[in-house]
Amino acid sequence: MSSVARQPVAEGFDVERLRGDFPLLTRRVHDHPLVYLDNAATTQKPETVLRTLDDYYRNTNSNVHRGVHYLSELASAAYEQAREQLCALVNAASEREILFLRGTTEAINLVAGSYGGACLRPGDEVLITEMEHHANIVPWQLLRDRCGIRLRWVPINEHGDLIWEEYERFLEGPVRLVALTHLSNSLGTINPLRRVIQTAHAHGAVVLVDGAQAVPHLPVDVRALDCDFYAFSGHKMFGPTGIGVLYGRESLLEKMPPWQGGGDMIKAVSMEQTTFNDLPAKFEAGTPHIAGAIGLGRSAEFLAGLDRAAVLLHEQQLLESALAACKEIPGLRVIGEPHARGGLFSFVLEGVHAHDLGTFLDHRGIAVRTGHHCCMPVMRHFKIPATTRVSFALYNTLEEVQILARALLEAQRFFH
After folding, report:
1. DSSP run (H or E) holding 1
2. Distance between CA atoms of 400 and 236, rounded to whole angstroms?
3. Residue from 87, 147, 374, 375 carrying the catalytic annotation
4. What is the mean pLDDT of the chain?
5. Residues with Cβ < 8 Å from 114, sequence gap 6 or more?
């Protein structure tokens, strides 16, 4: 097959310099240089984040918001500085709107359990889409079974885009909340969020956005989007695992009841009753993931220091080169062709199970994701059991696309 064309990248974008910030990218796998193309599952961590985590545990380790001693004050200041950094990253109006949680999954569960439990009534409808990750499906099914709401699904077309006419038709009903992904983790579809949110608000519905795949790649401005909730995870944006953020509109968070009870989310406790703390502490019960939050703040700082437009252009060039190479491989079918796609795609290779292909690629040092990607409704829509997913990040290169393309062609010959 012909080699992948070399394309110019945005002026000033130096991918090799950036790769030098990520130590794990230098390792070898099965005696091959690592080609890491599983970024939608988790991203690698730059030195600045790794050093921050190490420094906290070596030099600052203490609990936050509880002590008056020096280390506690240092830790508390760093923890709240991280909240300020995340607030700036997504342009929230106030740090009170930034809640530290374990990740996108916990954030969606909080909204379903707190807002859903307090503000939705039997017969109210929650609207989700056919392309959602299970983390944005199961919490609403649990709420349905517990509270008697009705769960409706906006279908997608064969390109992997929302069917807009169906979305508008559903909104004519008693829809009180719309929950959808910003960027699909299985198809790469970038949903037209501003239009989605504006239309939902016109019908009196609030909107929760799963931004796990979007924040690492797209500039996100929650005020410009006018969303009510926006959830994202640290480990997908070059930060630590086990930490993430829920942005919530302050007026909504104020009227929502606490989701969990414990220390630091209270002002006063008696034998008879509890007075809850102010935002954001009301939703952060117990000792938080302090090191994770501080590390996440550092990853937000890392992203803010990049030319995001240049990064986006670079990732789109990787995507276009990979898709062009895939067209040359007999029996390979890319799933979906959305109107706007982020830097990932999924595909099937005729006659080869995705898990077998993933193992084949792994033995050549290429890390991809195989399976249903926690999107079983998408697999059912396209009548396939599983796909192989390739997902790019800012540190991937056109040379790695070439390596992938050659390995896929080799796999096609091997299995057939």
Report:
1. none
2. 20
3. 374
4. 95
5. 256, 257, 258, 259, 283
Q: Is 119 a catalytic residue?
A: no
Show the tokens assigned to 62.
């203490």
What pLDDT digit, counting tens, does each position of 31-44 carry?
A: 999 999 999 999 99
Find the mean pLDDT for residues 195-202.
98
Residues 246, 107 contacting (CB under 8 angstroms): yes
pTM, rounded to two decimals: 0.96
Cα dihedral 89→282→124→107 (10° resolution): 40
**Residue range 381-389: average pLDDT?**
97
Query: Which H or E element spans position 35?
Result: strand 35-36
Percent of the chain with pLDDT over 70: 97
- Give pLDDT, residue 13: 84
Structural domains of the chain ordered from first start: 15-33+307-415 (3.90.1150.10), 50-304 (3.40.640.10)
User: Has residue 2 got a pLDDT over 70?
Assistant: no
Burial (CB count <10 Å: 0-12, 13-18, 19+), residue 45: buried
What span, in angstroms and rounded, lies between the C-alpha atoms of 188 and 40? 10
Which uninterrupted H or E stretch holds 20?
A: none
Beta carbons of 233 and 104 less than 8 angstroms apart: yes
